[in-house]
Design brief:
mainly alpha, 4-stranded antiparallel β-sheet, 893 residues
Length: 893
């Protein structure tokens, strides 16, 4: 077995093992492809902690206002969201339940209500969360959508992925049929698809691995460019080989000479394409930099073809084609020969005509490119439908506001800081194209009057008026008290008390006399008792018994007579004793009363003195009240004028204000990172991705910087986010690439062409590419609005320009390599040699363009149109212009 055959067997085995490995690793590659192609673009100008994804939930009733039942269902859905807040990674939820947010989240016709979800930081798996959020918020009886700028970007990436798969399928079917019919072979188209599939799978693995392990740029356009190279361009190259090989096959010649003759020119052809394609990694525009894989795909395609195809042609041999010649596919119309001849004969006239056409093309008005994500999203997408609902009920930029984030070293909750935020909010409102501004101090878009000094002054003024009224009442009360004090007759009361004291003294004296009389009466009673005893003794004595009977009778009668008075006297004595005892008590009471009376007398004298002092004080207080009223009236007048002056239309917030429910909600919605970051949301009345939006952003930045200068937040870190900011950054990045990177790449290609051609052919050929693509771009840009109802999408010129340039360089370089710069005739002959396969290549080239159009995705359709028109222009311009220019430059006229 020869060494060549061993190498071919080794090549087959190697690619078979590699293919099995690619199939085994395909799930990982597809997973990474989905992850990185659908991830949101990263804004390198913004701190990662300040980058937040968001989604807008749209609840709408197409038939009118939301009913109470529907609102209850929406409330239940929001409760479910709150319950799953941590699971979904949601940081804050803005809903119409908050009085501050209801004004901006409810539509004017009350048929639509929005809920905005802010997720924690930048979600790399945001595309996975969207279906989960949608299934969670789906509300029975209410039409529900999940949309927003971030959601639309993911939806567009998914649409591009789906369209790419459709394109691959269409290309495979049409290439299979076309190549099979043209070459009357079953093996040839299958081999073509095999090589295309291996190229695509290998490129996919390389791109996905580079993105996963080295953070290489990867977008949905990366997958598109790999698919287009693998299934659109490579099959055409292989078909050109089949065309040559079929002729060798008919003459029973080996295909090895074809490989030997073509590998070096083909390598020389793709080397500059690989270099410039890989250099796209240096681009700042994310879409442009993600196209770096085009160089890898071209290199892999070349490697796979020249290692695998020789082995396949060697072992398949007679099975490759059915008997018959494919040379009949060569066109009978020498298109380029006709044009080169025309250009060479009428060089001056041709160049003048081309110049006139170019000048006319310059007068074609170019419309601004469309940078909106929603434009390239299919109408079947619920995200786009939701965006259309929002745009029909809210300001134009409601779905994609500009967000300004201010990050400070300390919490932005002081009165001084919040006053600055309020001042900034007020100054941003008059900026042109601004519809509304929302911030922590104006969560509903309007000032909270209770937080402003002029409103607070009005409150103070009303309080002062109330105080003045109270002072008036106090003055009236003081005057009444003075009158009442004057009505008190303390002197007459003291006189009455003195007279009562004199009477008490008289009563005490009389009580003493009664006591003395009681003592005298007791002495008299004792005397009478003694006399009675004496009479009794006389009557009982013997001498009296022997005496006169009359004397006894007299004594007996006297004794008897004295008995009753004595008894009465004793009774009187007892009564006098009681009276004396009572008088004694009375005397004691009188003594106590005299002591109390003296105390009362002293107290009355003190009271009289105090009352006199009080009268004097009340008189002074009444005068002070009058002075206070006059001062209050002056202060009230001053504060009223001050509140109306506008000088104090500033915010003043106390610690108590921060604890109120409205401010807590506002802090929760607009402040982050423990209140060290605050956000300001700006809604435009223009399309966020339009040129007007970009100009407005510039004015907003200028206003913000000038307002913060010299304030407490002058050193805070500023960051801007939103669709307008993203579009602005992409435009600036693309402008940088066009002015810095693109000239180097074009210069490299021109120098490369000059090196291999050693003539001005390189300059002229490059010029035809620029003119053809520029003309196609201007024409399709003009017609797209009328034909497709949308302006040209921003990434279409990038993709179409790169593909157009690379495809046609693959024709220009082989033409150069077929000449030796000896004369114009050799260049023309080299160009005319392509006539026999030009129609064949053109026919197959329509397949990827048709596949792009059949996807029904706007960007794919526009790209197909730009490529088609550019190729048509170039097919005429290249032979005419080159032949005329070479004739004028090198031939003697």
């Amino acid at each position: 077995m020869s060494k060549t055959k061993k190498l071919k067997i080794a090549s087959l085995i190697t690619w078979a093992v590699l293919l099995v490995g690619l199939i085994v690793l395909l799930p990982n590659s597809l997973t990474w492809n989905n992850r990185y192609s659908q991830q949101l673009p990263t804004d390198t100008s913004t701190n990662k902690k300040q980058q937040r994804t968001s989604a807008t939930i749209v609840y709408t009733n197409p038939n009118g206002s939301l009913t109470s039942k529907q609102k209850k269902a929406i409330q239940d859905t929001q409760e479910k969201l709150q319950a799953n807040k941590k699971f979904l990674g949601i940081q804050t939820i803005e809903s119409a339940n908050d009085s501050n947010a209801s004004h901006r989240l409810n539509s004017a016709d009350k048929s639509t209500e929005l809920t905005i979800l802010h997720f924690k930081n930048k979600q790399s798996q945001f595309h996975i969360l969207i279906p989960q959020v949608y299934s969670l918020v789906h509300t029975p009886g209410v039409t529900t959508y999940v949309t927003g700028n971030d959601v639309l970007q993911v939806a567009r990436a998914q649409a591009i992925q789906t369209a790419t798969k459709i394109m691959i399928g269409i290309c495979c079917v049409l290439m299979l049929i076309s190549i099979g019919l043209i070459f009357r072979s079953v093996i040839a188209p299958l081999i073509t698809l095999l090589l295309s599939g291996i190229t695509y799978l290998t490129s996919l693995s390389v791109a996905a691995s580079a993105a996963h392990f080295f953070n290489a740029p990867y977008t949905a356009q990366t997958d598109l460019i790999m698919a287009f190279i693998s299934f659109g361009i490579l099959p055409i190259v292989i078909a050109v080989f089949y065309h040559s090989y079929s002729n060798h096959f008919e003459t029973l010649q080996s295909a090895d000479p074809l490989y030997k003759r073509s590998w070096l020119p083909s390598l020389i052809t793709i080397v500059p394409l690989i270099i410039t394609g890989s250099a796209l990694l240096l681009a700042k525009n994310e879409t442009l930099s993600s196209l770096w894989i085009i160089g890898v795909s071209l290199g892999l395609g070349w490697l796979i073809f020249y290692t695998l195809m020789p082995a396949l042609t060697e072992f398949l041999e007679d099975l490759f084609f059915w008997p018959g010649s494919a040379r009949k596919l060569s066109t009978t119309v020498n298109f380029w020969h006709f044009n080169t001849t025309l250009g060479n004969k009428h060089a001056i006239l041709t160049l003048v005509g081309i110049f006139i056409v170019i000048c006319a093309g310059l007068f074609i008005k170019t419309r601004p490119l469309n940078w909106s994500s929603s434009t390239d999203t299919p109408f079947s997408s619920q995200a786009k439908t939701g965006a259309n609902v929002v745009s029909s009920h809210y300001p134009t930029g409601k779905l994609s506001p500009i967000t300004i984030s201010l990050t400070n070293q300390s919490a932005i909750t002081t009165t001084q800081d919040l006053a600055v935020i309020n001042q900034l909010t007020q100054k941003l409102k008059p900026v042109p194209n601004v519809a509304a501004v929302f911030s922590v101090v104006q969560p509903a878009g309007t000032p909270l009057s209770s937080l402003y000094v002029n409103q607070q002054l009005k409150l103070i003024t009303s309080q002062l008026s109330a105080a003045n009224l109270n002072l008036t009442k106090t003055q009236t009360s003081l005057k009444n008290s003075q009158k009442q004090l004057k009505s008190l007759k303390l002197s007459s009361t003291l006189k009455t008390l003195s007279e009562s004291l004199t009477n008490l003294d008289a009563i005490g004296s009389q009580s003493s006399q009664v006591s003395e009389q009681a003592s005298d009466l007791a002495s008299d009673i004792t005397t009478i008792e003694d006399q009675q005893t004496t009479l009794t003794n006389l009557l009982n004595s013997r001498s009296l018994s022997q005496g006169s009977k009359n004397t006894r009778q007299v004594l007996t009668s006297l004794k008897t007579h004295n008995r009753n008075p004595l008894s009465d006297l004793k009774t009187l004595h007892r009564n006098i004793k009681v009276i004396s005892s009572n008088n004694s008590v009375i005397a004691d009471n009188i003594s106590q009363v005299e002591d109390d009376q003296q105390t009362v007398n002293d107290d009355f004298q003190d009271a009289e003195t105090a009352i006199e002092n009080t009268k004097t004080a009340l008189s002074k207080d009444s005068k002070n009240v009058e002075i206070a009223q006059q001062n209050l009236a002056a202060d009230n007048s001053y504060l009223t004028g001050l509140s109306k002056s506008g000088i104090v239309s500033t915010l003043y917030m106390t610690a108590a204000d921060l604890k109120t429910a409205p401010m807590k909600n506002a802090l929760n919605q607009f402040n982050l990172n423990k209140n060290k970051t605050t956000t300001i949301s700006i809604v435009l009345n223009k399309e966020p991705s339009s040129n007007s939006g970009v100009k407005t952003l510039k004015q907003l930045k200028t206003t913000t910087n000038s307002t913060l200068q010299g304030t407490s937040l002058s050193k805070s870190n500023l960051a801007y986010s939103g669709e307008t900011v993203s579009v602005t950054n992409q435009k600036q990045a693309l402008k940088h690439d066009v002015t810095h990177l693109l000239p180097w790449l074009i210069g490299f290609l021109i120098i490369y062409l000059l090196a291999i051609s050693q003539s001005l052919f390189a300059i002229y050929a490059s010029g035809t590419l620029l003119v053809a693509f520029g003309g196609s771009f201007r024409l399709i840009n003009l017609l797209s609005t009328s034909l497709l109802k949308e302006s040209l999408l921003a990434d279409v010129p990038m993709l179409a320009g790169i593909l157009f340039t690379y495809v046609n360089l693959a024709l220009i370089i082989p033409i150069i390599l077929r000449t030796a710069r000896s004369s114009t005739t050799q260049y023309l002959n080299a160009m005319n040699s392509f006539d026999k396969i030009l129609g064949f290549i053109g026919l197959l080239s329509l397949i990827p363009l048709l596949a792009l159009g059949f996807t029904q995705l706007l960007s794919f359709i526009q790209m197909a149109l730009v490529l088609f028109v550019a190729e048509v222009i170039w097919l005429f311009l290249f032979p005419l212009g080159i032949s005329a220019a070479l004739h004028v430059t090198y031939d003697k006229v």
